[in-house]
Design brief:
The complex is a heterotrimer of chains A (82), B (229) and C (735). A 3-stranded antiparallel beta sheet of chain A has the order 2-1-3, with helices on one face. Chain A has 82 residues and is of the alpha+beta class. Chain A has 2 helices and 3 strands. Chain A has a single domain, classed as Phosphoribosylformylglycinamidine synthase subunit PurS (Mth169, Chain: A), CATH 3.30.1280. The radius of gyration of chain A is 16 Å and the shape is elongated. The model of chain A has no long low-confidence stretch (mean pLDDT 91). Chain B has 5 helices and 11 strands, in the order βαββαβαββββαβββα. With 229 residues, chain B is an alpha/beta fold. The longest helix of chain B has 11 residues. With 735 residues, chain C is of the alpha+beta class. Among the domains of chain C are: 211 residues, PurM-like C-terminal domain (Phosphoribosyl-aminoimidazole Synthetase, Chain A, domain 2); 179 residues, Alpha-Beta Complex (Phosphoribosyl-aminoimidazole Synthetase, Chain A, domain 2), CATH 3.90.650. In chain C, the strands form 5 sheets. A 7-stranded mixed beta sheet of chain C has the order 8-10-7-11-9-12-13. In chain C, strands 22-24-21-25-23-26-27 form a 7-stranded mixed beta sheet, with helices on both faces. In chain C, strand 12 and strand 13 form a beta hairpin. The mean pLDDT of chain C is 94. Classes of the chains: A alpha+beta (82), B alpha/beta (229), C alpha+beta (735). Chains A and B meet through helix 1 of A and loops of B. Chain C: InterPro entries: PRibForGlyAmidine_synth_PurL, PurL_linker, PurM-like_C_dom, PurM-like_C_sf, PurM-like_N, PurM-like_N_sf.
Chain lengths: 82, 229, 735
């Protein structure tokens, strides 16, 4: 089973890297870009566990390790069933 | 009295801190290895600067999970003195011993330079030899030193006088230019509520000898030594 | 099987191929051809440069190791040695600036700790195209953050270097990185494969398909397809290398290994064959045992891979476990992949078959050496002539213009991104004439500098070579250091062009003469040819790295004025020399003329005098005169002064004023001295036959210069400071 986890800054946290990307896009003439938020993607390969178990541990490890809940939020999806 | 300097894979100020304690301050000092559970009966634990685990997930995040850090956490909860410098500060935040988190520097560049910090709270084991409002010239060297906390947390730490050092100019004024990394409240050093765990981004060990351009960092080590004597 | 096309693709000539066939007595297979193509590349074999490099003086009583090893070694006393080297990473840095520069740092650091030394300093010499072009800006930004990203993480301070801008580097930026480490004299390690049957261990990162053919890429001209070669560039992992440093130094502290070699350009191929050749032995390895990051790699790919952060170790037979334990402590695998054999052959097994069986001597020592044709370039005739040009109306404005030119302007924007204070040795911050690092538990310090002016070398290569050495040594003299060793990085165009070969020959001759005159040995270096894109070559760009020793760090001198009221004294003579100056380039857009000439004897006298005054504590500050001339050097003494002290001075010489202010005549130093010491200094100067002229006094907050009782320059220090300090940040400002 393959799971994709997306970690990004909470909306309340300023994201200077995202801002820099946005500014660059504007300088290149893409004025329709209203906002950019930068984040991280993790792809996890799991084996030997059920979907149900996966659904239990993914939020746990995301909260504990992959994201820092003080500044970051996460979302996830199963991208390949195993 | 004995100091312990923790070595994580990727620590790179471990020898500098050890050198300052041992050669400049003539203190009994030992290294502590991240894989062990043994604090070797030290009286003060120092988490040195560097790029623990390459800072690959977030600065300081992986180090916070190492076996030794579970002991350091308990040591801190029992009231033991813990000083986190630079990456050490980041680790303390990730570990939850200090509130808040570090973001990338506002201007998105690594910053290595001498800056000034103002002593905001001199009633801590790490700063009691300084005067309140004293200005210290010390170097910084970091990419992720832009301190962040929620407005509620900021209120809380201000109420508890947890801000020990603030970035200021040479005259002690707070302003945007002096707050080089964009930290909330110009925070350069932060202590826990109990008053025994300090995290700071500047490097006092790099400012303990005239030859290195400043001796202002001595006051932090001297405060700890006086407290423990 | 091997046809003409394949041979050409491997950058070998048909003659070279025939020589290979003759040496090994049969046609090579494709993996074997790949091995020869790497080891016989210009980058690894020095086949075009060897005969000229022989002219360099390489011996001296302090030399522990001269050219030919991973790095040179100089005895610095107290049982310690300095291990240092400079390397180019030009081609990869153009293709992918961040990773190109980062892996350059990784590579040079491995050269240092491979020999048993802990790296304590990095410097880099960078050359970019003008920053008015966005592409050059982004290359510079990438290179600087790549150096920072790797050096900062691994915890070796980047303490200095130099940066120049010229259009010839727009398509061929130069990234030359220098590293220095300190080791105990009796604990130096070499790339040896001794003791038949001793196991060969592979340590560090897994092997992937990265950088296949990096060494041959660095030995060919660029064309439009080069940017497509992006996958060739390796990715660096400073964290892994930090673990490697610690683990290797821990292993070396015990008596458990025989030899060690890093896998840099040319990876497994180079390390195995060099170690074997150095010891007259053979090596046999089994590729199935090599840790691999990707699936389905062929022997060709594995032998040629340039994956970073890998080392090869020959361990003592009965100590393998102990070696492995130490690496495992640092979370690294050390895998036995073969052993040392008799008979001087490199044998490689893969899936049970022998896929390589070559005499190491042929790979390492029998590469053809070329005496390439050389010819005086035709451009010299026209380019050395300067047509008449007017003098500026306002010298103050000209001074400000020069202060804000990218080459002269302050580089804090760059070095602030480098951790330059880690390891608590940095006594002078970047920006001084030389970087100064104290040696712990001793009064001594090491002074380091990089130097090289390519326009001088373009229009008079021999003088350019001499001046590169002279100026580097002058930089050291200004802080109070005696030069003890030299490493050089020689960046040139395509050596198959006779005019380029002539430039090379002349520059090397100049370096050789200067090193002999100053009596300092060259302990190694690097030649980077083929810095051409679509037929256009860079200016000949020698970069000299010179290491010096300060006996008493407390006496070292920095360039900034120390207090108001001190006397400012010029050591050396002003001459009317404007050719190749930054002034001509910046104000008239002319890169023409004959560079300033240099008398090596006079130069040596000035340097020794400067050292003598420092050892007697006669001077408060010293600063070399180089790009921008006398007026820029004087202004810098104010701008680098902690108190930003101004000055009011008078110059008397009778010559074109712009030549007097901005000409780059060599063998000159600006010093300041407390008034009560001036007399002593002038007397000593007379005795030593050095011209010393008191120009005036420090003080005030203006930069003021008189000539024949007329004020010709008058600027507030603040204004000069702003021009100098903000020029580079302004260019990179994100709007």
């Amino acid at each position: 089973m393959k799971v994709r986890i997306l970690v990004s800054f909470k909306d309340s946290v300023l994201d200077p890297q995202g801002q820099a990307v946005k500014n660059t896009l504007h300088t290149l003439g893409y004025s329709s870009i209203k906002d950019v938020r930068q984040g991280k993607v993790f792809e996890l390969e799991l084996e030997g566990i059920s979907k149900k178990e996966a659904e239990k541990i993914i939020p746990k490890i995301s909260d504990k390790v992959l994201a820092n809940p003080v500044i970051e939020k996460f979302s996830w999806q199963i991208i390949e069933k195993g | 009295m004995k100091f312990g300097v923790v070595i994580f894979p990727g620590s790179n100020c471990d020898y500098d801190t050890y050198y300052a304690l041992k050669n400049v301050f003539k203190q009994k000092t030992t290294f502590l290895w991240h894989k062990e559970h043994d604090l070797k009966n030290v009286d003060c634990v120092i988490l040195p600067g560097g790029f623990s685990y390459g800072d690959y997930l977030r600065s300081g995040s992986i180090a916070a999970f190492s076996p030794l850090m579970q002991e350091v956490k308990e040591f801190a909860l029992r009231g033991g003195l813990v000083l986190g410098i630079c990456n050490g500060f980041q680790i303390l935040l990730e570990l939850g011993l200090l509130p808040g988190a570090m973001l990338r520097n506002e201007k998105l560049k690594f910053l290595c330079q001498f800056i000034h910090i103002r002593v905001e709270n001199n009633k801590t084991p790490f700063s009691h030899q300084a005067k309140k409002g004293q200005i210290l010239k010390v170097p910084i060297a970091h990419f992720d030193g832009n301190y962040f906390a929620s407005p509620e947390t900021i209120l809380e730490i201000k109420k508890n006088s947890q801000i020990v050092f603030r970035y200021s100019d040479a005259k002690g004024q707070l302003n945007e230019e002096a707050n080089v990394n964009g930290s909330a409240e110009s925070i350069a050093g932060l202590i826990n509520k109990a008053g025994n765990v300090l995290g700071m981004m500047p490097h006092p060990e790099r400012a303990s000898e005239v030859l290195l351009g400043s001796e202002d960092g001595r006051i932090i080590f001297e405060s700890i030594i006086a407290k423990l004597s | 099987m091997i046809d003409k096309k394949i041979i050409e693709e491997h950058n070998l000539t048909l003659e070279e191929y025939e020589k290979i066939v003759q040496l090994i007595g049969r046609e090579p297979n494709i993996t074997e051809l790949g091995i020869f193509s790497l080891m016989w590349s210009e980058h690894c074999s020095y086949k075009s440069s060897k005969i000229h490099l022989k002219k360099l003086p390489v011996t001296g009583k302090n030399v522990v190791q001269g050219p030919g090893e991973n790095a040179g070694i100089i005895d610095i006393g107290d049982g310690l040695v300095a291990v240092f080297k400079i390397e180019s990473h030009n081609h990869p840095s153009y293709i992918e600036p961040y990773q190109g520069a980062a892996t350059g740092i990784g590579g040079i650091l491995r050269d240092i700790f491979t020999m048993g030394a802990r790296p304590i300093a990095l410097l880099d010499s960078l050359r970019f195209g003008p920053l008015s072009k966005p592409k050059n800006k982004s290359i510079m930004e990438g290179v600087v953050s790549g150096i920072a990203g790797y050096g900062n993480s691994i915890g070796v301070p980047t303490v200095g270097g130099d940066i120049y801008f010229n259009d010839c580097y727009s398509r061929n930026p130069l990234v030359n990185v220098f590293a220095l480490g300190i080791a105990e004299k009796n604990k130096i390690f070499y790339a040896k494969a001794e003791g038949i049957g001793n196991p060969v261990l592979y340590v560090g990162s897994k092997t992937g398909r990265d950088g296949i053919h990096g060494a041959t890429m660095a030995s060919a001209e660029f064309d439009q397809d080069s940017e497509k070669k992006r996958p060739n560039v390796q990715v660096g992992d400073p964290f892994k290398e930090k673990l490697l440093v610690e683990a290797c130094l821990e292993v070396m502290a015990k008596d458990i290994i025989v030899g060690i070699q890093d896998m840099g350009a040319a990876g497994l191929t180079c390390s195995t064959s060099e170690m074997a050749a150095n010891s007259g032995a053979g090596i046999e390895i089994n590729l199935d045992l090599v840790p691999q990051r990707e699936e389905g790699m062929t022997p060709y790919e594995m032998m040629l891979s340039e994956s970073q952060e890998r080392m090869l170790i020959v361990a003592k037979k009965d100590k393998v476990e102990e070696v492995q334990q130490i690496f495992s402590k640092w979370d690294l695998d050390a895998v036995t992949i073969g052993q040392v054999t008799e008979g001087g052959r490199l044998k490689v097994r893969f899936e049970g078959k022998i896929v390589v069986d070559l005499p190491v001597d042929a790979i390492i020592n029998l590469c053809p050496v070329y005496k390439r044709e050389s010819k005086i370039p035709s451009y010299l005739k026209s380019e050395t002539i300067i047509k008449p040009f007017p003098s500026p109306e306002n010298y103050s404005k000209t001074l400000l213009k020069l202060l804000s030119s990218a080459t002269i302007a302050e580089k804090e924007w760059v070095y602030r991104q480098y951790d330059h204070t880690v390891q608590v040795n940095t006594a002078f911050l970047p920006g001084a004439d030389a970087s100064l690092l104290r040696i712990k538990n001793s009064k001594k310090a090491l002074a380091l500098t990089l130097d090289g002016n390519s326009l001088y070398s373009y229009l008079d290569p021999r003088t350019g070579g001499k001046i590169a050495v002279a100026e580097a040594c002058r930089n050291l003299a200004c802080v109070g250091a005696r030069p003890v060793g030299v490493t050089n990085c020689l960046n040139f165009g395509n050596p198959e062009k006779p005019e380029i070969m002539w430039q090379f020959k002349e520059v090397v001759e100049g370096i050789a003469q200067a090193c002999s005159a100053f009596n300092i040995p060259v302990t190694g270096g690097n030649v980077s040819f083929y810095n051409d894109t679509e037929g256009i070559s860079i200016y000949p760009s020698p970069v000299l790295g010179v290491v010096g020793i300060v006996d008493d760090v407390s006496r070292a001198v920095s360039p900034g004025f120390k207090k108001a009221g001190d006397s400012v004294i010029l050591l050396g003579e002003n001459k009317e020399e404007l050719g190749c100056s930054e002034y001509l380039k910046c104000v008239f857009n002319m890169e023409k003329g004959i560079p300033p000439q240099i008398d090596l004897k006079e130069e040596k006298r000035i340097q020794e005098f400067c050292l003598e005054t420092i050892s007697m504590s006669l001077i408060e500050s010293a600063h070399d005169i180089s790009e921008g001339g006398l007026s820029i050097s004087l202004a810098e003494c104010s701008l680098l002064s902690p108190l930003k002290i101004g000055f009011s001075l008078a110059i008397q010489d009778d010559m074109r004023l712009d030549a007097l202010l901005f000409g780059e005549t060599q063998s000159r130093i600006v010093v300041s001295s407390s008034n009560q010491k001036v007399k002593k200094l002038l007397n000593l100067a007379k005795k030593r036959k050095v011209k010393a002229t008191v120009l005036g006094k420090t003080g005030g907050d203006r930069i003021i210069i008189y000539h024949s009782n007329k004020k010709i320059i008058d600027i507030p220090v603040n204004e000069a400071y702003k021009a100098w300090k903000e020029a580079i940040p302004d260019i990179f400002q994100v709007k």
